[in-house]
Amino acid sequence: MLPSADLGLLPGIAAEDHGGVTLCADMPWISACRSPETVSDFAAVVADYADRLWGAGVRPGAVVALVKSNHFDIQAIQCAVARIGALPALLSVTMEPADLVYCLKELQRPYLLIDTDGAAVLRPWQGQWGEVAARVLALTPEAAVAGAVELGESAPHRITRRSGSDRTLITHSSGTTGKPKLLVHTVDSLYAHVAPQIGVVQSLGSAGISAKCLSFVHVRMSSGLLTVLNTGLPFLGITSPDLPSVREALLRYRPEALEAQPNMFLRWEALARETPSPFSTVERYISSFDAIHPRTLRTLLEASDRPNPTFIQAYGQTETGPVTILMTTRSDLHERGRLNSRDVGTAFPGMEIRVVDDAGSPLPAGAPGHIEVRTPARAESMIGRAPLPGRETWWPMGDIGALGADGHVELLDRHVDQVLGVPSTLRAEDVLLDELPELAEVVIISVEGTVTAVAATTDGKPVDEGRWQQARDAAELPRNTRVEYRPWDDFPLTGTMKVRRHRLLPHGAPG
Description:
Helix content: 25-40%
Number of strands: 23
CATH class of the largest domain: Alpha Beta
Low-confidence stretches: 507-511
CATH architecture of the largest domain: 3-Layer(aba) Sandwich
Domain AMP-dependent synthetase/ligase: 38-377
Number of helices: 14
Strand content: 15-25%
Largest sheet: 8 strands, mixed
Pfam families: AMP-binding
CATH topology of the largest domain: Rossmann fold
Strand order of the largest sheet: 1-10-9-11-12-13-14-15
Protein name: AMP-dependent synthetase/ligase domain-containing protein
């Protein structure tokens, strides 16, 4: 079949082409007519959701906001909404409730589709549901709280086809730097996310299960689904990043490829030391969103029983999709300096990247500055914001980095996360994690002008002071850097497990 990014039509097309291929989740599909095991099952679930949405009155042109627990069924519901010509808006249930209400208001009274978790999060605003939603639909009877109607009765739906310039999906940014941005993707811009991924899958010739443990409302998962449906790659959606759930899923399904957010992989280092290793069958690890910590990369590669496993990193953002790619094998770990860098690879074909100074002038190779990209995958627009510049315009990533003469990008900092006196907070955190294996997480911020390391240890005990000072010096942090220890569970995270650095500041403290 020809590659496609039509969320509504592709499940059915893929079912005809490779319907028997595995496509499943590790947990039951509570709101679906069945728990799919194959591509054909998935297509049937999408069609059933579409019938039920049609029966509830959803019609072409409507916006359907989805707020539910993290599960792969989000992707099936998204496809069903698109199939009947409506526009899915995927919102994370882990978002701050006030931010969720903000997003619903920006969407101008969409249909609101919830499960029990979505209902619980939005319950304080239940009296305002009529103001922010045209109608509230409950995925299960348990979610049908006051004002919500169960998504139950079916009616044969009418399929809507989309052209390349038609809007097909609304997702949101992580909200690490403020209010989430609602981003609109067209069929063409979403396909530009997918095309490089299809190329990578086809070049690797994979046949084993590809497992993903992600935020299923993120555009990365939507493009991942399209890649799976286009290529016939067997797929497993892992619902929870908690260690027992991940261990059970990996030992049961024995995936060949495994994708997760960087901070999930960091948390899973503990699993890598277990016998039997849950990662023993993993040939390829995949990570996007942020650069992976070198310690984590090394730990996971060494946990595989494959001859020479690979770690594939992609750098990008919700607005752009993946922009660069870097592949590291276990044999590369011995390459001098490889794990002391923040290298996130080179640009995918058809995408451009540059580094500029404050005035927007390109900088020479190796000079740190602002990273900008040009890509056909950039989102079409933002809800409630001024029109975006054309895709031929350079797009600021909001990151500080350097571009090498060989085209490799060195990622140093988010612009808003820079700390005075620290050349790169990301590199400093890498060094601390390498020097101090007992650290489960460490984040460098500024508190009232003082460089501060907010740290969590695996055993909950502070690091020996002498060892801390040695690690601090190796990380090139100021001698007056202070350490604040917190339990890992106290770190404020986004739905993609990024640390909300601005939320680590004591109340009222300036950055």
